[in-house]
Specification:
Blueprint (H helix, E strand, L loop, with lengths): L16 E5 L2 E5 L2 E2 L2 E2 L2 E6 L2 E7 L9 E4 L3 E5 L12 E5 L2
Antiparallel strand pairs: 1-2, 2-5, 3-4, 5-6, 7-8, 8-9
Keywords: Kelch repeat
Pfam family, one: Kelch_1
InterPro entries: Kelch-typ_b-propeller, Kelch_1
Length: about 90
């Protein structure tokens, strides 16, 4: 089975969570330079589009799951390496 590959221009570094939402790839969290990324981006027609954000700055997201209009995020690390033990539900636009 062939594997699809994309190149991201988002320059997201470190660990981030990936999931699919309505059949499209979604990236959640990560870091850009020294700053955590709290936005959620979806790959739409080859372009990364911001579709939502998290309330916490989880630099490294561990797990993400999706439903038709929500993303559930569990775990991850905040700016100073503190483990984020909350479960966050993000409603996407």
């Amino acid at each position: 089975m062939p594997v699809a590959r994309w190149t991201t221009t988002d320059e997201r570094k470190r660990k981030c969570a990936a999931a699919t939402l309505c059949g499209q790839l979604v990236l959640i969290g990560g870091r850009r330079g020294g700053s955590p990324v709290n936005s959620i981006h979806q790959l739409v027609d080859g372009q990364w589009v911001e579709i939502g954000s998290m309330t916490s700055d989880r630099g490294w997201c561990l797990v993400a799951s999706t439903s038709p209009d929500k993303i559930i995020i569990v775990g991850g690390y905040e700016l100073f390496g503190t483990l984020d033990r909350t479960v966050e539900e993000c409603v996407v636009v």
